[in-house]
Amino acid sequence: MDIHALQQIVHQTRDARRKQTIPKFSPADRDQLIHKYHPDYRASAYRPIRFGPNADEKTVVELAALLEGDSLITDEMDLTPQYTTDVLVIGGGGAGCAAALHAHHAGAKVMLATKLRLGDSNSVMAQGGMQISVAPEDSPVTHFIDTLKGGHMHNDHDLLKVMVEEGPSIAKWLIELGVLFDRQADGNLHVKKGGGSSKPRLVTCSDYTGLEMMRVLKDEVLNQKIQLLEFCAAVELLSDEHGQCTGAIFKDLDNHRFVVVAAKSVILATGGIGRLHIQGFPTSNHYGATGDGLCLSYRMGAKLAHIDTFQYHPSGAVYPEQLVGQLVTEGIRSEGGHLVNAKGERFVNELDTRDVVSSSIIRECEEGRGIRTMSGRVGVWLDTPLLDAEHGPGTVEKHFPAMMMQFERFGIDISKDPVLIYPTLHYQNGGVKIDTNSETNVKNLFVAGEASGGLHGRNRLMGNSLLDLMVFGKRSGLTAASRAASMSHGKLTVQHLQRFRADAKKHGNVSGVTSPMILPAYTRKVS
Amino acid sequence: MAQDNTNVIDQPEVMQPRMVSIEISGKKYDVPEGITVIKALWYTGQEVVRGAGCLGGFCGACATYYRTKDDPKVRTCLACQMAVEDGMSFTIMPPFPARKAIYDLQTLKDPKQDLFNLYPEAPLCRNCNACTEACPQKIDVREGVWKAVFGDFKSVSEMFMDCVMCGMCTPVCIADIAPNLVALYVSRAQGARFTEKPVGLDARIKEIQEGRYNDEWKKLLNMSEKELADHCATVK
Q1: What is the mean pLDDT of residues A382-398?
Q2: What is the pLDDT of residue B188?
Q3: What do you get for the CA distance between the two ends of chain B, in Å?
Q4: Once rounded to an integer, what is the mean pLDDT over residues A368-381?
Q5: Would residue A333 show up in a list of annotated catalytic residues for this protein?
Q6: B11 near A374, Cβ under 8 Å?
Q7: Shortest alpha-carbon distance between residue A82 and chain B (Å)
Q8: Where are the beta strands (DSSP E) in A292-354?
Q9: CATH of domain A83-309+429-495
Q10: pLDDT band at residue A510, thresholds of 50, 70 and 90?
Q11: What are the strands of the beta sheet with A202-203, ordered from one edge?
Q12: CB pair distance less than 8 Å for B56 and A373
């Protein structure tokens, strides 16, 4: 059928739906729904990791293979450093820029390396906003409770308390750098309510929050003349005779040469795993989101946390084909957008947590109430025109200019027609286990942002990622910088690799892959 | 799942992809119609390192020049957001060596005047409008440059909120202005220096520093797992 014919049911049922309230699930019903439909509970997608710090714990097969994968680096490699620095930041997204700026400000010599350009990241795409408890009726304690509920009570309390308490001072820092957050008429920060939150707490820059923050942070990294190493992918970390981290080896993607960097400490801010396309899901992630930091730290002996749980964002585009997997911001649901099945019915409280909403969309589709495309995809409607009906014409255009433009390019006006959506692989809930200074169990190896784990429990609350990046980027940068003043450079070895390889051999060297992946293999091979 | 055709969207282009002829950097290839420009690169066997970033239309890494069949007009797009069509010709834009001014926002004496020290070329716009035509985000770039020069920083910051810093406004400028960099400076100055300080935020920071929530924290963090879960359930 023609897409417009299928959309009619959404238009026809709009007024009736507006009178409806859909209650949130009880905890028992919620758990049942998630266990039945959430991809995290599809047992066949998982296997135990064979060896290493998380031996016998389960994760998705795609990640397990990479964690057990071999390094590109041989024992004989010449490890004479081309560069020497105090703090080596790996990753050019939000966490990496924040870490570099704070370490630099604290007086350390900083180098920032990234496998693409400075700023190419998931951070730049964050649309929904950043959770910071600034409203008078809100508090850091309430932010803590909401996050804990969202994470199914599995969040690390110490990390979480640090994040919610430092939120407001992060907002102040960003404003001083020139980030233009949306304001109320009285000059205070305007806050929106996000899914799974009891109070309005999302500070935003229209639907360009991540882009606005990244434009500013990137510009500031350049203003501070922080040394950059772009288009250089980290392929191995370096350790001394005590197993402490002392630097990293990169592969320059332009000339394919290795670059050795000696550092007093390393901050990995390498982001997530969307481009592994776990369970065949499309992804909202950027080109380089291949979990490199997880592989590098794992080989060094760093323990991972919650590495079996991933976030499938409820609203990934399904149509048109060119936009498959790309995010339709949660902001649309925050402002009242309904999710509607093929029968014209709502089926979930749209502001429930992401795992609940995603699970219910998958349920609708598996039970035959989805809308299918001829390319074999399926989805449900997100009633975007409802926002104009509810809040006045022009609302969608004014509040979601990025979204409008993305669909306009393919001849779709989302203020007039609903969009077809299905969950898309969005975020790695877990990662490398860190303490409140963002340090791992490997001394002088820090991990910040999406690559780290523990903070978000088993489901990250919307808007907590941008704050996570800023808070733990800052803490890692400051800790690494303060330590640099009183320490000297360690030996550069790959002794940890010898241990890792001995372990791999004991388990039959079965992974068969080299990791990290660096970039996904999208180039079509013709035999 | 029901396999009837009542709820299936027509996509003939997906079922029977029509092959179209395109030119990538001057070389001819046949690719399926409608795939994105970046996917056309992968389809034709090319390894992409430079020229791909977020793949979502936000990072500006894939700035591309293209021309459609028989049209002399060279246009710009983001390669991840543009579908190919028959007769299309495109080239990904290499990084353009524009000059970025170095500044410290907090110590600038008069940001509106300092614009002319940092970017002395900014007032030399000759109104050709090429920058506006080059913008894939449909920003009125020329107007923005003038507003910056006349000190209307607020309008510039609003107009350039959509800017993905792809830099395609830069090579076309006959006055050697880098409009996106000018706008970034202006927007940051607007945010840091000309926007009201949010008093509620300062109040909250002070509350946290003064330990206003310490009792609540103490109570919460000393709860057993069960007590904590029950307490959380009461917060709606």
Answers
A1: 95
A2: 98
A3: 36
A4: 91
A5: yes
A6: yes
A7: 23
A8: 304-305, 310-317, 338-340
A9: 3.50.50.60
A10: confident
A11: A130-131, A202-203, A191-192
A12: no
Residue A257: other Cβ atoms inside 10 A: 11
Distance set, CA B73 to CA A411, B67, B69, B96 (Å): 21, 6, 10, 21
Task: Report the distance separating Cα A361 and Cα A382, nearest Å.
Answer: 11
pLDDT at position B14 over 80 = no
Residue of A315, A240, A305 whose CA lies nearest to A284: A315
Using DSSP's 3-state secondary structure scheme, residue A442 falls into: coil
Range A3-37+311-425 classified under CATH 3.90.700.10: yes
Do residues B187 and B107 lie in contact, with contact meaning Cβ atoms separated by under 8 Å?
no
Output the DSSP codes for B63-104. EEEEE-TT----EEEEGGG-B--TT-EEEEPPPP-PPPP---
Above 50 in pLDDT, residue A487? yes
CATH fourth-level superfamily of B13-92: Beta-grasp domain (3.10.20.30)
Residue position matching structure tokens 């509040």: A399
Helices (H), A301-437: 331-334, 354-366, 385-391, 395-399, 401-408
pLDDT for A418 equals 96
pLDDT tens digits, A307-333: 999 999 999 999 988 899 999 988 899
Q: Do A272 and A428 meet the contact criterion of CB atoms below 8 Å apart?
A: yes
> Which among A288, A292, A284, A326 has a CA at the least distance from the CA of A427?
A284
The pLDDT of residue A113: 98
Name the band, by pLDDT with cuts 50, 70 and 90, for residue B5.
low
User: Structure tokens of A478?
Assistant: 């400051």
- Best probe of the A interface among B138, B195, B204, by most A CBs < 10 A, is B204
Give residue B16's pLDDT.
73
Mutation choice for B interface testing from A4, A30, A124, A130 by most B CBs within 10 A: A124
Determine the Cα angle at A115 with ends B93 and A300, to 5°.
Answer: 175
Is A498 in a helix, a strand, or coil? helix
Contact A272, A257 (CB under 8 A): no
For chain A, what is the mean pLDDT?
95
Q: Measured between CB atoms, does B174 come within 8 Å of chain A?
A: no
With vertex at residue B18, the alpha carbon angle to CA B15 and CA B19, rounded to the nearest 5 degrees, is: 135
Structure tokens that stand for A483 in this block: 């330590």
Percent of chain A with pLDDT over 70: 100
Q: What is the pLDDT of residue A210?
A: 97
Contact residues, chain A, for B57 at CB < 8 Å: 326, 402, 405-406
Contact B105 A254 (CB under 8 A): no
A67-96 b/e (C-beta count within 10 Å ≥ 16 → b): bbbbbbbeeeeebebebebbbbbbbbbbbb
Domain B111-193 CATH (choose: 3.40.50.1820, 3.60.110.10, 1.20.1560.10, 1.10.1060.10): 1.10.1060.10
Residues 6+ apart with CB under 8 A from A496: A237, A239, A243, A299, A300, A301
Q: Which residues pair with B19 in a beta bridge?
A: B32
